[in-house]
Each structure stands twice: as C-alpha cells, then as structure tokens.
Amino acid sequence: xxxxxxxxxxxxxxxxxxxxxxxxxxxxxxxxxxxxxxxxxxxxxxxxxxxxxxxxxxxxxxxxxxxxxxxxxxxxxxxxxxxxxxxxxxxxxxxxxxxxxxxxxxxxxxxxxxxxxxxxxxxxxxxxxxxxxxxxxxxxxxxxxxxxxxxxxxxxxxxxxxxxxxxxxxxxxxxxxxxxxxxxxxxxxxxxxxxxxxxxxxxxxxxxxxxxxxxxxxxxxxxxxxxxxxxxxxxxxxxxxxxxxxxxxxxxxxxxxxxxxxxxxxxxxxxxxxxxxxxxxxxxxxxxxxxxxx
Length: 294
What we know:
By secondary structure, this protein is an alpha/beta fold.
C-alpha cells in the first residue's frame, strides 16, 4: 500500500474547552505538502496529532489504512519528526548526538555508525560531524534535526516551523534539502512563511482558526485570487494609514513613492492597476475571505 496519510474529520479540543483543530479532512500522498497558516491556526497541534504525540478528540488519522490512535507503532516505525522546539546537547558532537538518538530509537547497534554517517552526508554535515554542537549555527542545528528525523529512514517526515530564526541563506538551503528528501517520502512542512513552501510544495493545506480552508495545488489557490490583486504606488507618508486599512502583501520603496500590492474586493484607488496574483497574494486573499488574521 502507498505511503498514504488520511485525516477523517480530525478535531482536537483542550481540556479547558478550546478547539485547536476542528473537523480537518484530507488525504496526503508522497511528495511535499505545505501546511500553511498564521500563528495560532492549529498547525502545531495537528502536527502533534499526526506524530502520535496527542490523540485526536474526534475523528481519526489513518496511516496505510491503520488508525494511528489504536496502533501508533504502525506509524512510529516509519515516522521522522522535527518539532518546533527541537534542542541539542551542546557538549556532544553531531556524530555523538545522532549515535545517542539512534540508541534511543532502538536502531540495531551494528548499523548505527553507518546510518549516522549516511544521515550526516544527506544533510551536508560530514565535514563538521565531530565539532561540538554548541558551536553550530542555527541552520546547522536544524540540519542536525533533520538528520535525527531521518535515522530510521522514515516514509513520513514531519517538520514544524523549521526556518524560524534562520537567516535567508540558511532558509534557502533548508528548503532545498527538504525538496531533495521528498522522493518516495511524504514530507509535511508546517509553516506560517509562504516563501518556505513556494518553491517546493506541490500541494498546499491552509489552516486558520483550527479549520482547513484550502487543500490543493498552488496554481488552484492563485486562481481563486484572480481579479482581487492590485499594484499601486502611493506617497511614503501614506503607507502607515494604508497598512491600517488595506491588506498589503508587500511594499517596496521606489524613487517616486512606495509600490504596494493590495488584495481585496475592489481597487484601493482609481490609479491602482490589476495584476496577476502570486502565492503570497493568494494566501492573504484566502485569509481575508475566511476572516483570519495573517
């Protein structure tokens, strides 16, 4: 059976009565799925459910047809997970740290050294494998995080907000790494940063307010925003007021003022020019329609 993950009306309610996830249903196959949404959308809670760290309070999650709440080990054997708050033991080297985690995960001792080397090679850390993790940059630590998630050669790889705090070069390197790792794996990349999934995800799942608002291709999302994106140049001193009243996807200072892209139901000004939406525009338009805050 294919490495398929199916969510059937999945919900998660905290004890205080707060619904973090409400009725999410979708099916995911190998490739990169970008789980996108603003902070507080319910993404991290859903990632915990999918990684068997929490049980859904309604609905069910199926991996290869098996309910992971009833038989979590069916998924855990094939799961790699990089959490948002992944930490390292700074006194250890990357090689030592991964060997330690291999033992924790129960990998056969005779295979550990070779598998650690393979994972270090995949994430491009072989040359610094014996350096203490305390001297690693943020991007290098995230690559160690991916390496530990790959130790058991997972068919499902889940990464939660992996580029927060990384500089642009490290973020780009990380995105390229995930694209290379997809292949026969299902990779779920959860983020609130559109550029993290723009170049790599073939499928998007967008959440806000705990609900699934869109599931489909980036092209289908952009098609929904057709006719609702304008480009407009305004004086720099009017930018603050415009930000307070309009949904602006980006702003660039020019010699003659500030050029902005605006999403909405109508043109922001008579001299605004309608333009084709990009993914950032389409994402903001979807949030606007669902009443969510970006």
